[in-house]
Design a protein that fits this description.
Elements (H helix, E strand, L loop, with lengths): L4 H21 L12 E4 L4 E3 L27 E3 L1 E10 H5 L4 H27 L17 E2 L5 E2 L9 H12 L15 E4 L1 H12 L19 E4 L7 E4 L8 E14 L5 H6 L1 E14 L5 E4 L2
Parallel strand pairs: 1-10, 7-8
Antiparallel strand pairs: 2-3, 4-11, 5-6, 7-9, 9-12, 10-11
Helix pairs in contact: 1-3
Amino acid sequence: MLINKANMTGMFTAFKAMASASAASAKKVDIVGLGLVLDMPVTQVSVDYSQLQDISDMREWVGEREIKRQKGQKLVISCVEYERTVEVKKRDIESDALGLIQANVRQMAANSALKPQKMFASFLENASTTLSIDGQYLLDTDHEGSAGSSQSNVSSNTFTYDNLVTADVAMMNFTNTDGDKVGAKGTHLVVGPANLHAARRFVESENIPGSGNNDTNTLEGAFEIVLIPELGSKWFLIDAGKEYKAAVWQHRKLPEFAAVTDMDDSYVFLNNAYLFGTDADWVVGPGVWQAIYGGGF
């Protein structure tokens, strides 16, 4: 290909369209569409989520209004910048060796589309060491209940039918600090490949798997199974049916395809090569602990 301004502009336009199509067609877990995260587009790098501290019910109005004030904990979530850049030699463009270049562009775009689910998987795997708004880890054994009591939304239990029932019941009994149940109910069962087939037996079978009497499976159809390939043996029940979420998906900038194709650019002059890449500014952070239960920790 003859390298001139018009041809380079045309090639970048074609690559950008190719990247957009590859990102759109990538087979990914839609963490926003499934309701697994609180979708938060922002314009600033850091946001204070202290208002997530308590889930309070309405009360009978007796006397003056009872004002719920922040308890002192502060949760600030900051976006993190990501990028991927590839170099393309000028002579490869001149000799029309564009096949591999196009493949690189398509894969780079697909990887950027898959990045949110990978970030969400990493967030879940580390939820027992990630501080949440109540001052405890998101998955912890001593979240504050009423009158000094504590509540747990995590266990070391392996993924069995009985342990899944225990998690389901535990979530329905979660309360706020006033002792009022918050109405939590697991809607999505999030697992990795190691637990996928067991999850299908637990949730899709008419009878309890392994039951000698073919007892009715009360969990049949109870949860939507979400496979996230990056997860290990840990498993999670998530309530995706409420406005509050277990995780916050904060994004200041979604992936954007860019290039250095100006023939007068210093990098092009010094390296006889052009640059193509993508970058984003986003993060998965902790939300409300009552919206999640984790097992296998």
